TrEMBL record:
Protein name: Cold-shock protein
One Pfam family this sequence matches: Ribosomal_S30AE
Domain of life: Bacteria
Length: 108
């Protein structure tokens, strides 16, 4: 999977790229295709702000995390994307459960 990683402040080292790719590999376990994943790393004050956007069929996932440690922010971002992908995967099941069943009246 090709992940676009951009940053104007932080140099993208191989270790940072490896961490981001490993978090996105965990997302692939659900076997849902991620379309054009893009990660943006920014530095605001003392904290790192990491944002990710990835398309899925008929929807888009977006998450952001902020932490003073870049690797902790990447992990938090990955957890948020995992939760969103889980909700996306379970959505058809939840909608199917809410469909009301027709009421059958018995003749007495």
């Amino acid at each position: 999977m090709s992940i676009a990683i951009t940053s104007h402040v932080v140099d993208i080292s191989p270790a940072i790229r490896e961490r981001i790719e490993s978090r996105f590999d965990k997302l692939n376990r659900r076997q849902i295709v991620l379309i054009n994943p893009h990660v943006v790393i920014q530095k605001e004050g003392l904290n790192y702000l990491v944002e990710a956007k990835a398309g899925v069929p008929n929807d888009t996932l977006f998450a952001q995390a902020e932490h003073e440690d870049l690797y902790a922010a990447i992990n938090e971002l990955g957890q948020k994307l995992e939760r969103q992908l889980g909700r996306y995967a379970e959505k058809p099941l939840a909608q199917r459960a809410n469909v009301t069943q027709p009421i059958i009246e018995e003749d007495e």
